[in-house]
Design a protein that fits this description.
By secondary structure, the protein is an alpha/beta fold. Helix content is 43%, strand content 14%. The structure holds flavin mononucleotide.
Length: 325
């Protein structure tokens, strides 16, 4: 498959592994890149910019294929030295950056001067148009199905992707709710140049998380995600465990929810412990509705090849048969 995405990034298959806090380490990113997709190291998973620099070097030892780095610019309790992380990315010679969370404009001059291709992740058309206007090279359009932060508009990819095709001039990637060949074929049909997956790549052999977390996602249905932080207008889609249900319960009480009321339940350190240790009710973790379509724990190579082969079969056979000769 050749699309503007494979051409612009110099990759074999139009599949990206999106940034994932605590999950996007060199092990996963290199496995996805070695499979012919684009692996992405998550910048802020590294405690300091120096550690990010080292993680990028570690990933280079594991793959000679292109890979990228995610820089998520979100309001945090502890201030983050974003500029220094951006410098570590530039100094390390990385050529592909996925930005998310907030308008990446302040970082663009530095990235552009270093010849970096910037893919900005957006959950709405207005943000996608803004990203195009400020000079991003591509956008990842993240629909309501997605893990992590779907925004507050609740528009699914069946609407967002055709809208992106109508309105954007720069190439766009479909993100959220994708995990199989049907999804890839549908995304391409709706005008996307490829797909970005988070949740599906969590459930692979190389994802550096506990086997129990992967198995919980295999066992889950499409109904097993929860939307938390809605009352704070900072919605996050997470796996529906007892902690997520408790947070939703607290948020649904009359009156405004104070972050202090839920802070201890959702602490990042607990989520990290959960992913490392496999205690499924220790905290929260991001997961998308695609869990309902995940039935196994393949290697990244098996997964990427299966998705591409299935999509090729759908496009080349099923869709072709629909058209009379
Ligand atoms: C465990 C996990 C952590 C994530 N952390 C981040 C993050 O730190 N920054 C970011 O931009 N996106 C993050 N995401 C979102 C993914 O990059 C991607 O946009 C999303 O997973 C796509 O939806 P999907 O899960 O349905 O494939 C995370 C997703 C997961 C599953």
């Amino acid at each position: 498959m050749q699309t503007r995405l494979t051409e612009m990034l110099g990759i074999q298959h139009p599949i990206i592994q999106g940034g994932m806090q605590w999950v996007g380490l060199a092990e996963l990113a290199s496995a996805v890149s070695n499979a012919g997709g684009l692996g992405i190291i998550t910048g802020l998973t590294q405690p300091t910019p120096e550690d990010l620099f080292k993680e990028i070097a570690r990933c280079r030892e594991m793959t000679d294929k292109p890979f990228g780095v995610n820089l998520t610019i979100l309001p945090t309790i502890k201030p983050v030295p974003y500029e220094e992380y951006a410098l570590a990315i530039i100094d390390s010679g990385i050529k592909i950056v996925e930005t998310a969370g907030r308008n990446p404009e302040p970082f663009l001059p530095g990235f552009k001067a270093a010849g970096i291709t910037v893919i900005h992740k957006c959950t709405s058309i207005r943000h996608s148009l803004k990203a195009e206007k400020i000079g991003c090279d591509m956008v990842s359009v993240d629909g309501f199905e997605c893990a992590g932060h779907p925004g507050e508009d609740d528009v699914t990819n069946l609407i967002l992707l055709p809208l992106a095709a109508k309105r954007l001039k720069i190439p766009f990637i479909a993100s959220g709710g994708l995990g199989d060949g049907r999804g890839l074929a549908a995304a391409l049909a709706m005008g996307a140049e490829g797909i970005n997956m988070g949740t599906r790549f969590m459930v692979t052999k190389e994802a550096p998380i506990h086997a129990k977390v992967k198995q919980a996602m295999v066992d889950a249905s499409e109904l097993d995600t929860s939307l938390i932080f809605r009352s704070l207008s900072n919605t996050a889609r997470v796996f529906k465990n007892s902690v997520a249900q408790k947070v939703v319960e607290i948020e649904s009480k009359p009156g405004a929810t104070k972050f202090e009321d839920i802070q201890s339940l959702v602490a990042g350190v607990k989520g990290r412990e959960l992913l490392d240790g496999g205690d499924l009710d220790n905290g929260i973790w991001s997961a998308g509705m695609i869990v309902g379509l995940i039935d196994d724990i393949p290697s990244c190579e098996e997964l990427v090849h299966r998705i591409v082969a299935d999509a090729e079969q759908i496009i080349g056979e099923r869709l072709r048969q629909i058209l009379p000769v």
